[in-house]
Q: What sequence folds into this?
């Protein structure tokens, strides 16, 4: 029998230690390595990235690199004295796989998380306590590095600079070059000094390959009728724990839970069911929901939903505005989780 809970009744209390323990690779990348990465032979920059990152990781770890140099051919490129490495490339070229492989290679205290998770960590702990907590680490990895407003620009430039000064090595991924961070979101020229500080911290590696953004947004499965949700949930999720929420109630509830706790909000949840999904019209609400979408994807939590299709979750203005990368990623990830759930449940076609 399905065990039903509600996310909208959960208010997780999370200690500093618990927050920091969450900065590990998601289950999707829990056992990856440089050896399991398969570079495209037609894109030499992918094999080059493996060589450079492997060499960088062995330097951080203080031990010789493995046989990956021979495996991928040639000598590893030496990194300079900068604090770290910045992987620039489109969606789907394996940047997160490579970043997680670096994290797995390095022993000792280390952290890996998305850019948003680090800004949320600062919001939860304070800037100074975050610096103190991370300064003893050997390696800090930042995935999906993006600057969306002036406050984040100044915040992250200071954090990276202080960590670098403390001897922490840094690695980041993004699809925006460091010097272009913030473009299209605010008057980047007014914050060029802070942006340049970030750019100066990294050696930049370009990773070529097909950018999945060129394929457009994936088409989500048709939402179910409310009357079909319970039967689909029982077919698919059996003895599992499922969080069932009215979408409007869940969205309102997220405003009262700090985004740094969204990972713990989902603890023990095997699947989610949303009733009456609707388009989110407020930017601040939408950005909070993007964080939840990322955490659901990290944990590979399938979704069953009624109401509006998931590609209508955000307004057209949001999907073409300054935060479009975030919204594109959220829709893509939620669509994948919804498709997984409906295909597994073999649900009947919804009533028109």
A:
């Amino acid at each position: 029998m399905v065990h039903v809970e509600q996310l909208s009744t959960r208010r997780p209390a999370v200690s500093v230690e618990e927050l920091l323990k969450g900065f590990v690779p998601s289950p999707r990348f829990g056992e990856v390595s440089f050896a399991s990465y398969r570079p495209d032979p037609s894109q030499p920059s992918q094999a080059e990235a493996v060589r450079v990152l492997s060499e960088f990781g062995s330097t951080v770890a203080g031990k010789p690199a493995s046989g990956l140099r021979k495996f991928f051919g040639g000598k590893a490129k030496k990194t300079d004295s900068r604090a770290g490495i910045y992987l620039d490339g489109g969606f789907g070229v394996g940047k997160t796989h490579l970043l997680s492989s670096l994290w797995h290679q390095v022993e000792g205290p280390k952290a890996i998380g998305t850019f948003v998770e680090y800004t949320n960590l600062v919001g939860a702990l304070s800037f100074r306590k975050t610096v103190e907590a991370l300064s003893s680490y050997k390696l800090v990895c930042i995935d999906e590095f993006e600057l969306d407003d002036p406050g984040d620009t100044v915040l992250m430039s200071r954090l990276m600079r202080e960590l670098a000064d403390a001897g922490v090595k840094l690695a980041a991924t993004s699809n925006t070059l460091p010097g272009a961070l913030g473009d299209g979101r605010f008057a980047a020229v007014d914050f060029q000094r802070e942006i340049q500080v970030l750019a100066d911290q990294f050696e930049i590696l370009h990773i070529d390959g097909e950018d999945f953004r060129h394929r457009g947004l994936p088409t989500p499965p048709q939402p179910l009728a409310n009357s079909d949700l319970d039967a689909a949930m029982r077919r698919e999720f059996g003895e599992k724990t499922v969080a069932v929420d009215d979408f409007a109630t869940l969205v309102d509830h997220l405003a009262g839970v700090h985004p740094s706790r969204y990972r713990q909000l989902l603890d023990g949840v095997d699947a989610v069911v949303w009733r009456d999904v609707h388009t989110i019209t407020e930017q601040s609400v939408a950005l909070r929901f993007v964080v939840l979408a990322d955490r659901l994807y990290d944990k590979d939590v399938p979704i069953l939903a009624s109401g509006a299709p998931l590609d209508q979750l955000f307004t057209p203005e949001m999907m073409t505005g300054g935060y479009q990368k975030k919204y594109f990623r959220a829709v893509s990830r939620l669509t994948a989780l919804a498709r997984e759930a409906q295909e597994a449940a073999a649900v009947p076609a919804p009533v028109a």
